[in-house]
Write a structure and sequence with these properties.
The complex is a heterodimer.
Chain A: H1 3-35, H2 42-58, H3 63-84, H4 93-115, E1 128-131, E2 134-137, H5 138-160, H6 162-172, H7 174-179, H8 184-206, H9 217-231, H10 235-257, H11 259-276, H12 281-288
Helix pairs in contact in A: 1-5, 1-8, 1-9, 1-10, 2-3, 2-8, 2-9, 3-8, 5-6, 6-8, 9-10, 9-11, 10-11, 10-12
Chain B: H1 2-11, H2 14-30, H3 33-44, H4 46-58, H5 66-83, H6 88-115, H7 121-139, E1 147-148, E2 151-152, E3 159-160, E4 166-167, E5 174-175, H8 178-201, H9 203-213, H10 215-220, H11 225-251, E6 253-254, H12 261-274, H13 279-296, H14 301-318, H15 323-335, H16 340-355
Antiparallel strand pairs in B: 1-2, 3-6, 4-5
Classes of the chains: A mainly alpha, B mainly alpha.
Amino acid sequence: MATLPNVYSLVYQFGDNFAYLVLAALGLAVIFGMMGVINLAHGEFIMCGAYVTIIAAKRGVPLPLAMLLGAIAAALAGVIVERLVIRHLYDRLFDSVVATWAISLIVQQTMLLVAGPSIEGIGTPFGSFSLGDYSFSTYRAVLPLIALAILFGLYLLFFKTNYGVCARATIQNANIAQCLGLRTDRLYTLTFALGAGLAGLTGALYAPTMTAVPTMGSNFIVQAFVSVVVGGANVIAGTTPAAGVLAIIQTGLTASYGQLFGQIGLLVTVIVVIRLMPQGLGNLFTRLR
Amino acid sequence: MKQTKMPSMSACPRALQTVPWLIALCLPLVVDANTSGNLAYCLLWAFSAVGLAAMWGYGGILSFGQTAFFGLSGYSYGIFTLNYNDTWFESWLGLGAGLAVSVAVATLIGYMIFYGRIKGVFIGIVTLSVTLVLETFMSQTAGPQWAIGEARLNGYNGMGGMSPLTIPWPGGPLTLENASFYYLVLILLIAVYAVMRKLLDGPFGLTLIAIRENPQRAEMLGVDIRRHQLLVFVLGCTLGGVSGALYTIWGAYITPSTMGLTAAAMPVIWVATSGRKSIGGTILGTALLVWLSQNLAVYGSQYALILLGAILLIVVLAAPEGLLPFVTRQLKRLSSRTSDGTRHGGACLKREEGKS
């Protein structure tokens, strides 16, 4: 029976694409959904997480701890960026987007100068397992589960904690939230740090599987944008189904026509979705509810 | 709106506006052929910037996709001229082909965006996705199966060897290069400047400003906002295509990285720095910034990009209306401290910044 390995191979690829889309988009989606800011320095936060993870792991820090360090470093960088730049631009949405692009450019090029074109990576942990004629990387098979766990964690954070309630109140109506005594500026800082930290975590999780180069963030950026556009402003109810649908399309097209058509399929989906559902899939789901 | 435009109009009398053009016209007479080729390079990016200034400054549409049309048009020129390069006429037809592709693709994407009622920063993400996917697509066309007629696309290394523009001349066709190419770019730029000023200072531009300031009010007044936004989008993107075709002609070379993330930031930087509400200022600012980064690139392209990023950050934080308008406003404030009118004009400008 060769069907089981074939079916699993498709499931594995779907899971891989799904994890990549979700993880690439989460940090961007949190900042966009909560604050309306498109963070074009998203890729640089991912890079930051990956670099810190690799450097820490090489110094002998256990890998999970190194990944946590990567996420924390990116979150701290997020706090700095928010305090120094984004904070002054909340009432000027376009300018905040352009400013994050400037930050992205400065950080990326400075890293090229300081750290050189690439640093030596760390190997993928856990080895691989084989099923039928195929061999699969255990680490990449686990990643979709980690992505789901992170989504569930975010759900708990936004719906079960005090921070989540305050943050959602601030999105709905910042002025009234402020009148009720919420420190909205602090919430914005925390939210930006959360988004940056999630981006850093993505970088940390993918650090063992790819070469670390200062421009590595741009590998994630298209997927992140595509998921956020298709998903809309709703972080959990938008990003998850969007990544699911896009991963099905990408896996199907890649399996039948190759990598390139997978990418083009994503773009065509985006353009069709914005024409039919300008608010994104998330809106569809919340409206049905 | 009239009120806010008054101060800048009175500060720059018509006669003063023609001075940079006259200097530009005389430049090739005093510098050598190589330098005028370089000057043409500095000027040819201005079309893309003017297109973005019209979209962003007047229409309130922040597109990150100028480079997509830059690349599309450049590649179209290359593909066309590598296949047909027998007569002078065909090189101009190649330029036309580049622009036609830009118009067609811009119309398609613009239709999806504006008739899908996409707004604000989402337009930026969609256009940026388009240009990044195009870059990915062109980068993987290395194999011999990726050829259109005679033209190999050559993947990441880019396409080269296309023929330049030529014009018929007694005693054999004349190739436009260095000084003559500079004059071609300059004449095109003057034409674009004149047309854009006429268009944007006229009813079309005023309608765009009305849409930018308050789309609902404009719609209630009977303006078809989607059609106007689509028109300015196609116009702006096509100007990006003009830059792309001219760039390809200038260097006989185009690569996918002209559509990458870093390249896509450039038009935004130029326009934001020069002041997006002035077409003339945008042309001047873009030429200066390109010249600056070209000179800095001698020490390594990273330094130029870091400097441009830093300029953009400073401009956004300290002088949101752009560096040139900021400087002129400060100078004016210094020169006429006592005059009340200037301060009033400044206040108006300030109020306007908050919204965009």
